[in-house]
Amino acid sequence: NEELEIDLQRLFGALIQRAWMIIAATIICALVTLGATQFLITPQYESTAMFYVNNGSLSVGGTSLSLSSSDISVSKSLVDSYIVILKTRETLNDVADYAEVDRSYAELKAMITASAVNDTEIFQVVVTSDDPAEAEKIADAISYLLPKRIANIVEGTSAEIVDHAVKPSSPSSPNVMKNTILGAMIGFIFAVGAICIYEIFNTLIRSEEDIEQCCSYPVLTVVPDMRTQSKGGYYQYAPVNLPGRRGKKKKNQKKQIATGENELSFVGSNLGFAASEAYKMLGTKVQFSFADEQDNHVICVSSSLPGEGKSLTAINLAHSLSQLNKKVLLVDCDLRKPTMAQKLGIKQEPGLSNHLVRQCEITQTIQRLKLSATSSIDVVPAGDIPPNATELLSSDRMARMIETLRDAYDVIILDLPPVKEVSDALVVTNIADGVVLVARENYCDRPLLSASVKQVEFVNAKIMGIVLNCSRE
């Protein structure tokens, strides 16, 4: 059973961050209830008549009773009896005739309420109607007929009028202020509740703390969202002069970068300051991860899902390491959906798959790529898409190729397919020295990253850490 952890500090922060939503919901609901109260609800008017229970010598049927005027409980009993008499069909029919209103017995009964006033011998009759004049006429009719009706039924007692009914000058309901405040409270509670529920059940990774909650590996670096200008992550619109791709006109270049068509602007010296520093930090941490081990290393870069930026991370990691005077080889091992050649503007074939099926030697697939004035790397593209990618990557020829290339390069970076999409990544990690997992903010969720980590651990691969990509904090 999975445990649901509620971070109160995070909830409070989310409420503060979305305070505008709470305010907007409060105002909107208040305005809606205000409009509904004023335009959709028919105003109701109340006219009230008050009576005093006069009990002396009481005779009901053949029984005579002597009652004390201070006996409150008996007075209450009389009040209840008078209310029953008031709401009888005969009484209300007489009231309708006397008041000259076109109301049925059921309608009149629903319009009339009667009750004792603070447990005294006084009771009041309240008539509610959407017509103030009608309410007054019905209340006046009750004031005239009810005492007579009581005197005829209950001998020795009477009901005296204390306060005559008057025509109401303002509606008793709806209460505009009360309904508006109630609507504002409902909007406030709904907005706060919706935000809290969303925060509790939203498992997307949104910070370094989220990664720390779902796995025990460190966050190697936080790469800003490079398609926005916030936090220095914005890609520069500098011309890109790389082999294999002709330059674009300046008037079209901005459009291509903004839509993500020109992936070359997401690489190397074209990065914004914050993104460039993030990748430099990644390269430094990767280098120090092997401080006490051999000089030649194979590093795998993967992610849980496609679209998390693993390929760009692999490219920029290679660029960062090359700036540290490392001879770097970048290999596209995503044989099902290769993207490296397109991102770097190089030829797709011959590539890795062609070498693994013995169509060419590995040296024939290597292409030199200059990423900046001080940085160049070698790249092996994926090659032709094969029908048996898993078998090729797990073959002895693949393992021998990696061991051969170790002697020629300081660092070999393998761009692997997503861990949770296919098994290709797992069959390669056992020949590598370390694995870097990329998690994209607000894209990958915590359970998915945790499952990916467990899968990599299952094949006894060394996880070096996590890269939080596309961060907007």
Can you give me a brief rundown of this structure?
The chain has 473 residues and is an alpha/beta fold. The chain contains 17 helices and 13 strands.
Structural class: alpha/beta
So how many helices? 17
Rg estimate, integer Å: 42 Å
Give the termini distance in whole angstroms: 32 Å
- Name the helix and strand elements from N-terminus to C-terminus, one letter apiece: HHEEHHHEEHEHHEHHEHEHHEEHHEHEHE
Give the strand tally.
13
Low-pLDDT stretches are 57-62, 229-262
- Describe the largest sheet: 8 strands, mixed
The average pLDDT is 83
The helix content is 40-55%
Global morphology:
rod-shaped
Topology, element by element:
Elements: H1 8-17, H2 19-39, E1 45-60, E2 63-66, H3 72-86, H4 89-99, H5 105-111, E3 112-116, E4 122-129, H6 132-153, E5 155-163, H7 176-201, H8 208-214, E6 219-224, H9 250-259, H10 273-289, E7 297-303, H11 310-322, E8 328-332, H12 340-344, H13 352-356, E9 367-372, E10 375-380, H14 389-393, H15 396-406, E11 411-415, H16 424-429, E12 434-440, H17 446-458, E13 463-471
Parallel strand pairs: 6-13, 7-11, 7-12, 8-10, 8-11, 12-13
Antiparallel strand pairs: 1-2, 1-4, 1-5, 3-4, 9-10
